[in-house]
Amino acid sequence: MRWTCSLLCSAAIVAGAACAGAQAAQPKAAAPTTHKGLLPDALDGWVAEGAAKTFADAAQADAANAAALKEYSFAGGELTTYKREGETLTIRAIQFEDASGAYGAYSYYRQNGWPKEDIGAGATSDHNRVLFWKGDTVVDATFSRVGAMSAGEMRELAEQIKEAPGSKALLPPILGNLPQDHIQKQTTHYAEGPAGYTGGGGVLPAELIGFDRGAEAVTANYALSSGPATLTIIDYPTPQMAEAQLPKIAAYLKAGGGAQPAWPKALVDSDAASLEVRRSGPLVAIVSGDAIPDESHRLLEMVHYEANVVAMPQAGTNDVQKTAKLLLGIAGLVIVGCSAALLLGFFLGGGRALYRIMRGRPASSVYDEEFISIDLHEKWEPRAGPGLDENHGENPKG
Predict the structure, then answer these.
(1) What does the pLDDT read at residue 321?
(2) What domains does the chain contain, in order, with CATH numbers?
(3) Cα 134 to the chain's mean position, in Å?
(4) What is the largest CA-CA distance in the chain?
(5) Do residues 252 and 271 touch, judged by C-beta distance below 8 A?
(6) What's residue 24's pLDDT?
(7) Do the Cβ atoms of 40 and 13 come closer than 8 Å?
(8) 114 phi and psi, to 5 degrees?
(9) CA-CA distance, 180 to 220, in Å (whole number)?
(10) Residue 279 φ/ψ, nearest 5 degrees
């Protein structure tokens, strides 16, 4: 039992030290940042000129493209002008309800052929303009003069933009149905409505897609060996809706230039023999362009619908949750240590007691008299004989 008590005391001391260390290691409250809304007041030497202009309506953020922004679920925006050593930087940040809307708006603004940049979740540039997106936000920056550090300054800004939480961070599942062989990465356009589809270079008339019934569409260009091709994929809420729309699209393509509504330029410039449409589950895929029919057909056959369960990203834990997990872990460690100490004492002490009982002895050694003793109570009587004195024992004269 003495060992058990010692172990319990030691475990309590360790737990106390660990708790004290956890409190000491807990980060101090962060200093107030310079953020006001979506954009900071200062950025790598750039200083905001006056207060930021906020947008509560899509028409205020971009009047010419307000309809498309609303289709992508516009949530708000902000415009800030920065100054640094006589140079000007204008940044417009537009926020959407989720990452799908932000990616769609980014693909809507990005033009085919713009070079790719390594900023945020996706970025491109056009002379003195840098466009990127991250989380649920699209950032459109215009420099009065692009310098060697302009891209680095935009990366610093991207680091300050938070990721979208939970299921809002998911990209449109339809993007996973695009074949990756021969795809031109900077040509993908995602649309949730007719304005975004038409403005993003859609091949078919918007009214033929069925956006009013919840359809989504994505287009991408492919560099096939025999020529360029454009693949359009339309995702309907159910396979039945896709099956009902398929013959309408096929009849429109078969009618040629005399179809109503009239063919868009993308179809007019295509090889009529390469135009083809097919369905896979809720997906309807259309191939157009100038590739030979065999290659166009192979590209179309690569579109295959497969139902998958998507894992939703979980929101990150905060400092309070981390501290609570640490304390719970310490409590669990103390419980395990105490249990081990009790079991160890039981087996060591109980085993020894059982062994003594089996040998016919008391369970405890406290009552044992296993030591040598001398009996001093016996009366001493001298022996009679020569050389012994009657009164004093041994006769010194003897």
Answers:
(1) 77
(2) 35-171 (3.40.1000), 172-306 (3.40.1000)
(3) 12
(4) 161
(5) no
(6) 41
(7) no
(8) -70, 135
(9) 10
(10) -120, 145
Nearest to 41 by CA among 53, 30, 31, 49: 49
Percentages helix, strand, coil for the chain, rounded to the nearest 5? 40, 25, 35
Q: Which residues have CB under 8 Å from 350's CB, separation 6+? A: none
| Predicted local distance difference test score (pLDDT) of residue 257 | 74
Q: What angle do CA 235, 170, 202 make, to 5 degrees?
A: 35
Instruction: Give me the average pLDDT of each 10-residue run along the chain (398 residues).
Output: 44 45 41 59 93 94 96 96 95 97 97 94 95 97 93 94 92 94 95 96 94 96 96 97 96 87 90 94 96 95 77 56 86 89 78 75 62 59 55 48
E strands in 66-207: 74-84, 87-96, 116-117, 122-126, 129-134, 137-143, 189-191
**Chain mean position to CA 118:** 19
Closest listed residue to residue 79, CA positions, set 46, 113, 39, 117: 39
Residue 125 carries which side chain, given as an amino acid letter?
Answer: S
pTM of this structure: 0.69
